[in-house]
Amino acid sequence: xxxxxxxxxxxxxxxxxxxxxxxxxxxxxxxxxxxxxxxxxxxxxxxxxxxxxxxxxxxxxxxxxxxxxxxxxxxxxxxxxxxxxxxxxxxxxxxxxxxxxxxxxxxxxxxxxxxxxxxxxxxxxxxxxxxxxxxxxxxxxxxxxxxxxxxxxxxxxxxxxxxxxxxxxxxxxxxxxxxxxxxxxxxxxxxxxxxxxxxxxx
Amino acid sequence: xxxxxxxxxxxxxxxxxxxxxxxxxxxxxxxxxxxxxxxxxxxxxxxxxxxxxxxxxxxxxxxxxxxxxxxxxxxxxxxxxxxxxxxxxxxxxxxxxxxxxxxxxxxxxxxxxxxxxxxxxxxxxxxxxxxxxxxxxxxxxxxxxxxxxxxxxxxxxxxxxxxxxxxxxxxxxxxxxxxxxxxxxxxxxxxxxxxxxxxxxxxxxxxxxxxxxxxxxxxxxxxxxxxxxxxxxxxxxxxxxxxxxxxxxxxxxxxxxxxxxxxxxxxxxxxxxxxxxxxxxxxxxxxxxxxxxxxxxxxxxxxxxxxxxxxxxxxxxxxxxxxxxxxxxxxxxxxxxxxxxxxxxxxxxxxxxxxxxxxxxxxxxxxxxxxxxxxxxxxxxxxxxxxxxxxxxxxxxxxxxxxxxxxxxxxxxxxxxxxxxxxxxxxxxxxxxxxxxxxxxxxxxxxxxxxxxxxxxxxxxxxxxxxxxxxxxxxxxxxxxxxxxxxxxxxxxxxxxxxxxxxxxxxxxxxxxxxxxxxxxxxxxxxxxxxxxxxxxxxxxxxxxxxxxxxxxxxxxxxxxxxxxxxxxxxxxxxxxxxxxxxxxxxxxxxxxxxxxxxxxxxxxxxxxxxxxxxxxxxxxxxxxxxxxxxxxxxx
Lengths: 202, 636
Prior knowledge:
The structure holds 2 protein chains of 2 kinds. In chain A, strands 1-2-5-4-3 form a 5-stranded mixed beta sheet. Chain A has a two-stranded antiparallel ribbon with strand order 6-7. Chain A contains 5 helices and 7 strands, in the order αβαβαβββββαα. Chain A is α+β, with helices and mostly antiparallel strands. Chain B has one domain. In chain B, the strands form 7 sheets. In chain B, strands 1, 2, 3, 9, 10, 11, 12 and 24 form an 8-stranded mixed beta sheet that branches. In chain B, strands 5-4-21-20 form a 4-stranded mixed beta sheet, with helices on one face. Chain B is globular and about 70 Å long. β6 of chain A pairs parallel with β7 of chain B.
């Protein structure tokens, strides 16, 4: 039998080393467990809902891969849907459905001076094991003292959450909304998510 | 002599950061324990690392730049003990597929995304075969048979499939009812739907539905199970996953990495949740070379690794989980003195010890057991995507799903067709029809001949279909892993030596199966249906070294059996699970199941993957110090 002894080496050979850039936690798109569980529960409870509904707000975006940190659930529907959802989630309701008009915290950034944003909808609120769920029906937006916009409408897209199929508001609608409000940081986040999702060449 | 760099102690040290460690690290980190994961490669960022460089055909397809660098560490291979084992020096055909993974996610960056389940027969192969065909059946087929049952269960498959976003559909079952238990290799609850069927898959499906399988029943086709997410997905750890965009050019002979993270990989399924927990530290470009044992010899107290500059780091921990690639795991144990090394006695045809015992192969011999034909698919089919999506599979030729009475083998193979053609960019090495001048074709296939082939390559109306069945490869005493006495890695440590050749069961089974598949191809209307020439066992040595080699560690419950010895052979160390009979030990490993099955070679990453949930459970209980005695997890 031939014998070939390779002498020991004290140092590694000159091999290429690929530098790692390990992602920081804030770069990762990870949904907190309590909200994840609430999302699954809502998805299961509303799976037979006849009215149009979809997860919206930050929760709708993170389920589509956008790097945001939701602290509650939001559903966008219409008045009929809001009523139907209230029935299906009756045991969790903390505020009955009613017409609500609210000025949100962030202003529109489309003029030299910031403009307040007001929303109105037929809304109700729920609590699922400590997680807040806001349901908006026929939500409309007004910037400053401009005219009210039409009720938001959309064709839902679908994503899967641990095997549960749930509708989400399309990112395309969110992009148009954010661009209209001048929230370019949010547009950028959606753009980054879409860039991660699609191939780069060809 | 360099100074050893002391790292801070942690609760859990994960050795290697692939599929198995991904689960263990994440489960433990989310439970609040401090975890360190050590891997010899980098963290691959699919956005920046794969999307812009994966089409580097030379670097990926031939240089295997995403794979384990051979100058750092190779392995030697031989067919039997009469041969001198030679090292793998280059990832070239036919040993190209030997390539191991490198970095976080391990080999997952270059696999095809097939991730089905083992059937229960694979776990109980020895006892079921003895019960059906007699005790001597296996020994009558394979000389030096060493097949044993494995005490594994199905409980962990669901969690595994949820974590990795597996696509499938049970609706292929004949009854499709909740009481249907005839198809245990399929889940009723895949978290994602299957990919749309390709034209070839539809043809295959409709064809087999009208045929009769060898068991006398109709074939039952299922959408092929795939680890490529078919839809946007969020797993149970809250990690969001992009869907496959099909045109990703991720398969073919180059096994390109996934540029959107749609292909299941610990780096993009479990590890993000571990990082997000704040309890997990990832150490990359770190080459683990030894486990340090306590004075008593039954505790691992630290892992040693070299960083990219060659410095020796010492990482202490309370528990160590070995989730390395199969034979790297064996090698580290042998280098560190864990367990009893397997020693083969060629004179008696038996062996003793267990660390390294039972090496098997997930692939059948490349030569002599294949069938091919050409199918008219009736229209252009975009030849991109990945082999595990869009296909249809039948399991009726697998395991013991048909009678083996009168046959000279046991088991069988999954047969699927119609997966996306894959075949990403391949103009340098793999383009169909392109060849250098040779005897048969003095001018090579260039010019007009080249153009003609390219039209059918990229917009084909006919499709060549070939099959090399995954007939089961059973463990024998003669196939094993040990340390090579001659060759070393870059640091002077012996590399692993693989002694392996296919056994008669594999040849006999594949020979039988190709004729069953030939009948299906013919029924599909294929032309030029050809069955490769039969090759007698051991007459054509294995020259197709795949990265689907598996085994080398066993688990079991009977200390008097050869395999039992999950624990016994390790002299008190755990393997895979916590063992109540050896209270106080702190080493867990993800031993790959030695028995093979007819399912896809990656099935559940060799079935050890799902069991990593059990390891995580055992480690939690060990750390909580509530199960140092009296609880036998194997029995639970």
